Amino acid sequence: MKTWIIGFLIIVLVLGLLNLSHFSRKDYIVTVTSLQVKRPDAEGKEIYLVFTKLDSVNVRVFKNTDSWVELKWNSSDFQAKLEPNKKYNLRVYGWRIPFLTRYQNIVKIEPLN
Predict the structure, then answer these.
(1) Predicted pLDDT at 46
(2) Would you state the pLDDT for residue 19?
(3) Burial (CB count within 10 angstroms: exposed 0-12, middle 13-18, buried 19+), residue 48
C-alpha cells in the first residue's frame, strides 16, 4: 500500500513540475539556421523544431507546438513566418531537458532587422 502511495505522489509531483514550465519565460535573440517538422507525436500532432544560433558559439533548438494552456493554436503560421539566416526575438516558455527530449516552446516571434 505504501508503494502505491509513494508512486502516486511521484507522478503528481512530476506532472506538477511539467506544468510549472509555463511560468518559466525567457526572450532570446537568435538567428534561425534551419527548420524541421518531426512526425506526429503520440497525440497525433506534428512537432515543429526551430534550430538557432544565439551567437557564434551557442546553439539552441526550440519547439513550436500548439498549447491549449497558452491559447496558442497557430504554430503552423509561426513556422511559416520563420526564415533561415534571419534574426528574431523569440519569447519561449519551459525548460530544455535533453535526456527527456524536452524543448522550450515558442509563444511569440518578432522579426529583427
Answers:
(1) 79
(2) 59
(3) buried
DSSP assignment of 61-91 equals: EEEE--BTTTTB--HHHHHHH--TT-EEEEE
- Give the pLDDT confidence score for residue 29 in this predicted structure: 95
Distance from C-alpha of 78 to C-alpha of 109, rounded to nearest angstrom? 7
Place of cell 529583427: 112
Alpha helices by DSSP H, listed for 1-113, are 2-20, 75-81
Measured distance CA(29)–CA(11) in Å, rounded: 35
Q: Which of 18, 15, 26 lies closest to 93, judged by CA?
A: 26
Task: Catalogue all structural domains in the chain, each as residue range(s) with its CATH number.
Answer: 24-111 (2.40.50.140)
